[in-house]
């Protein structure tokens, strides 16, 4: 019997790799484990070979796959050995679930012919990973692998995007099999309800003080061009968050993120696109202070399950975000709308005033260094296509205030899950996905403790990254609030002025400690010129806390 030309044959690892390649995978992030050796053999023998990127902790492999999904909008692939290999990747899967990041995690699994006898790392992973994935399955035979892997990748990249998980028993992974080759679809969201789009257009047309909020799914759904068209042609003031940052370029006259408080408190209509109405957005309540009328709220999402179930919405719609936004633009193009010049002027003046106030912090000569001074030196050195990654608490909050990306798809942060330790994995992914761009990892000294060992991975694989640390010798995001609540703090201090740059040098990278604000700029110049993993370890003032309006509850 001959094999049909649209079928895949080989051992299960070869079939799995062929499916992954068909879905656009070029790199496999992993930490060596015998349960998944067939995947490595498949990667080495495929044509072209799939790049094997091995790390020092499985969390880094999984975070690298999650960041790859964010940056490329093609599912990232993490291959993790059985038991602790899989459980070490759970936080990254949870982060991907919260952020809508397309990724596939492949787990090893104890052999089926030994199941129940106490084989090494024998555990059923599915009950552990199912709550934080879109799809989780065990593929029991080699003949199940082609269709099973295709289903996982299809689920991961379809709206609403997220993580998918599959594992294969070790004995089945080594077996030969056959299965159908993938047939890729367009992976576009559903067509939006035209009546719902018309209702939203009517609300926008009547609003005197509208604000548009653009979130991560605008980028993930390839809707960044449609979003910018709507903003510019309708002259709508916009705020961006997550990977929506850069959709309206930094410095654009309609980007009013620096006037966020005035915009959201003064708006009569807030249209939220591609991001949940969670703690970052006041749970969907805007304005209403001092007896005023709260703003009407519209929620637009890429799929029905992402629409808010708790907020009081004036209207909502789900579907392909480009179709929604272009539909709104078409409906608004001929509609009479109020004169919003005064509203725009108010917000632009507020942005200008905030920028003027920021200038003092960005050039601060304080000793110890104020964290803002680091951004005063860093931001002018960032190219328009720089990829900036945040991994930390207070230090990264300052980044959100001062770094306004010029292009979409260039900002990575922990997102609503708030998971520390993702930074090294994201930096690895960014350097591979954007080989010619600056890659800057912003590290809190607390966050660095989760993953700094993976500088070894950067070194071994020749991946230069500029790492900038705000080292305040504390868990700053907890220290201040605990003092506010109790008048004291515990479990919030780290060793003072730890020389993390020496750790980086010991692992084969480079770096230096900076204590004088005047030396930050020259240190950054050396880091960008080094063509190596380079840590600029800046000792900062623990009392210079970020002035936050929410603690996430």
TrEMBL record:
Q: Which GO terms describe its biological process?
A: isoleucine biosynthetic process; L-valine biosynthetic process
What SUPFAM superfamilies does this protein's entry cite? DHS-like NAD/FAD-binding domain (SSF52467), Thiamin diphosphate-binding fold (THDP-binding) (SSF52518)
**Entries under CDD domains matching the protein:** TPP_PYR_POX_like
Q: Specify the signal sequence span.
A: none
Determine if GTP-binding is one of this entry's keywords. Answer: no
Cofactor(s) needed: thiamine diphosphate; Mg(2+)
Q: Name one Pfam family in it.
A: TPP_enzyme_M
Kindly list the GO molecular function terms attached to this UniProt entry.
acetolactate synthase activity; flavin adenine dinucleotide binding; magnesium ion binding; thiamine pyrophosphate binding
Annotated Gene3D superfamilies: 3.40.50.970, TPP-binding domain (3.40.50.1220)
User: What Enzyme Commission number does this protein have?
Assistant: 2.2.1.6
- State any GO CC term: acetolactate synthase complex
Keywords, comma-separated and alphabetical: Metal-binding, Thiamine pyrophosphate, Transferase
InterPro entries given for it? Answer: DHS-like_NAD/FAD-binding_dom (IPR029035), THDP-binding (IPR029061), Thiamin_PyroP_enz_cen_dom (IPR012000), Thiamin_PyroP_enz_TPP-bd_dom (IPR012001), TPP-bd_CS (IPR000399), TPP_enz (IPR045229), TPP_enzyme_TPP-bd (IPR011766)
- UniProt similarity note: Belongs to the TPP enzyme family.
This chain belongs to the protein called: Acetolactate synthase large subunit
User: Per the UniProt entry, what species is this protein from, by scientific name?
Assistant: Nocardioides simplex (Arthrobacter simplex)
Organism lineage? Bacteria, Bacillati, Actinomycetota, Actinomycetes, Propionibacteriales
């Amino acid at each position: 019997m001959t094999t049909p030309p649209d079928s895949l044959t080989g051992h299960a690892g070869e079939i799995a790799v062929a499916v992954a390649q068909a879905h656009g995978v070029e790199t496999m992030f992993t930490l060596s484990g015998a349960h998944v050796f067939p995947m490595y053999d498949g990667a080495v023998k495929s044509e072209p070979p799939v790049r094997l990127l091995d790390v020092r902790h499985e969390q880094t492999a999984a975070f690298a796959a999650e960041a790859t999904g964010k940056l490329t909008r093609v599912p990232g692939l993490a291959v993790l050995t059985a038991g602790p290999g899989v459980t070490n990747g759970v936080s990254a899967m949870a982060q991907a679930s919260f952020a809508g990041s397309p990724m596939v995690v492949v787990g090893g699994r104890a052999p089926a012919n030994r199941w129940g006898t106490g084989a090494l790392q024998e555990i059923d992973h599915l009950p552990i990973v199912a709550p934080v994935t879109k799809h989780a399955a065990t593929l029991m035979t080699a003949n199940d692998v082609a269709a099973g892997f295709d289903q996982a990748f299809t689920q991961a990249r379809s709206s609403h995007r997220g993580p998918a998980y599959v594992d294969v028993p070790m004995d089945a992974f080594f077996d030969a099999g056959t299965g159908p080759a993938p047939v890729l679809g367009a992976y576009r969201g559903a067509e939006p309800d035209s009546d719902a789009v018309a209702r939203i257009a009517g609300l926008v047309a009547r609003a005197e003080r509208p604000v548009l909020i653009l979130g991560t799914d605008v980028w993930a759904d390839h809707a960044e061009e449609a979003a910018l068209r709507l903003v510019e042609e309708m002259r709508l003031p916009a705020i961006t968050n997550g990977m929506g940052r850069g959709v309206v370029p930094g410095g654009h006259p309609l980007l009013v993120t620096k006037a966020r408080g005035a915009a959201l408190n003064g708006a009569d209509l807030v249209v939220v696109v591609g991001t949940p109405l969670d703690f970052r957005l006041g749970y969907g309540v805007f304005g209403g202070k001092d007896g005023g009328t709260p703003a009407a709220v519209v929620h637009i999402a890429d799929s029905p399950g992402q629409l808010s179930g708790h907020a009081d919405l004036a209207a909502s719609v789900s579907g392909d975000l480009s179709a929604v936004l272009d539909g709104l633009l078409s409906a608004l193009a001929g509609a009479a709308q109020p004169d919003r010049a005064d509203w725009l002027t108010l917000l632009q003046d507020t942005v200008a005033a905030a920028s003027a106030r920021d200038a003092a912090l960005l050039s601060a000569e304080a000793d110890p260094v104020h964290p803002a001074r680091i951004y005063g030196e860093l931001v002018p050195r960032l190219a328009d296509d720089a990829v900036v990654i945040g991994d930390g608490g207070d230090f990264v909050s300052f980044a959100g205030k001062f770094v306004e990306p010029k292009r979409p798809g260039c900002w990575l942060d922990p997102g609503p899950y708030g998971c520390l330790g993702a930074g090294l994995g994201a930096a690895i992914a960014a350097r591979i996905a954007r080989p010619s761009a600056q890659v800057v990892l912003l590290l809190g000294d607390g966050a660095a403790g989760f993953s700094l060992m993976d500088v070894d991975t950067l070194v071994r694989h020749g991946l230069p990254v500029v790492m900038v640390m705000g080292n305040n010798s504390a868990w700053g995001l907890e220290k201040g609030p605990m003092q506010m609540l109790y008048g004291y703090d515990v479990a919030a201090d780290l060793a003072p002025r730890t020389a993390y740059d020496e750790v980086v040098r010991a692992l084969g990278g480079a770096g230096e400690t900076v204590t004088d604000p005047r030396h930050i700029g020259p240190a950054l110049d050396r880091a960008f010129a080094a063509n190596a993993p380079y840590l600029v370890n800046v000792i900062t003032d623990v009392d210079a806390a970020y002035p936050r309006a929410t603690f996430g509850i």
